[in-house]
UniProtKB/TrEMBL annotation:
InterPro entries to which the protein is assigned, alphabetical: DUF3093
Name of the protein: DUF3093 family protein
Organism: Kribbella antiqua
Source taxon at top rank: Bacteria
Keywords: Membrane, Transmembrane, Transmembrane helix
Membrane spanning stretches: 29-48
One Pfam assignment: DUF3093
């Protein structure tokens, strides 16, 4: 939520610093362009899909067949925060959404995949872990 407030303040600031010397029309155009760019960025950033079906697991742009999934671990609190930071393997695939507090770490067993595991931010880590471990279908 705080990013939306910061973005709104930035748009207003751009309007004022442009409108004062160049006029209201110029300020409105600059603020409008900034608003469209920020909205596009936020929607793109927050729109990463996490889907599990019977054959595949999709997290953002990454897709893997479920046959290549190993151990699945739901992470919350400090465990989730550390999974994206100090405990993270640089080769791991990360789907980081900073506004989400939970995560799931999924071991990747495909020998051709350079990522040893994926860490996926999710609001419902237990539900996603259950879907990946069992035969459930989940969307986030």
């Amino acid at each position: 939520m705080s990013w939306w407030i910061i973005a709104a303040a930035a748009v207003v600031t751009l309007f004022v610093i442009t409108a004062v010397p160049a006029g209201t029309l110029a300020g409105t155009l600059v603020a409008g362009v900034a608003l469209v760019l920020l909205l596009t960025f936020f929607i793109q950033y927050g729109g990463a899909r996490v889907e599990v079906d019977a054959e595949r697991f999709r997290a953002g742009r990454a897709l893997i067949e479920r046959a290549y999934l190993g151990e699945v671990e739901a992470l919350t609190g400090d465990d989730a925060r550390h999974a994206f930071g100090r405990d993270c393997d640089p080769k791991a695939y990360l789907l980081l959404r900073s506004y989400v507090r939970g995560a799931v770490r999924v071991e990747i067993t495909d020998p051709r995949d350079p990522a040893p595991y994926w860490v996926i931010a999710t609001r419902a880590p237990e539900r996603l872990a259950a879907a990946l471990s069992g035969n459930s279908v989940a969307r986030s």
